[in-house]
C-alpha cells in the first residue's frame, strides 16, 4: 500500500470522548482509548475493562473484579 492511497478513520462520538476524558482523570486507571466502536481503560493493576458512556466507573471496575474472582456476574 502506498502512502496517501488509504486513510483509516475511526470517528469517536462526543459522548465517548467525554467518557475517555473522565477515565483519564480517574486515579485507578492508567490509560483509556477507543477501539472498534468501544471505550476501554487499563487499571494500574494491568486489567483491561470495557466501559459504556453512562457507566459509573467505580461500579464497573468493582463488578469486573468481582466477576474475575467468582466467574459470576452481579447483574
Helix content class: 25-40%
Strand elements, count = 3
Radius of gyration: 15 Å
Strand content: 15-25%
Shape: elongated
Order of helix and strand elements from N to C terminus? HEEEH
Low-confidence residue ranges:
none
Biggest pleated-sheet summary: 3 strands, antiparallel
SSE class = alpha+beta
User: Strand order within the widest sheet?
Assistant: 1-2-3
Average pLDDT, all residues: 89
The tally of structural domains comes to: 1
Number of helices: 2
**Distance, first to last CA:** 47 Å
Blueprint of the fold:
Elements: H1 14-25, E1 29-35, E2 38-43, E3 48-51, H2 57-70
Description:
The chain has 75 residues and is of the alpha+beta class. The chain has helices at residues 14-25, 57-70; strands at 29-35, 38-43, 48-51. Strands 1-2-3 form a three-stranded antiparallel sheet, with helices on one face.
Outline of this structure?
The protein has two helices and three strands, in the order H-E-E-E-H. It has 75 residues and is α+β, with helices and mostly antiparallel strands.
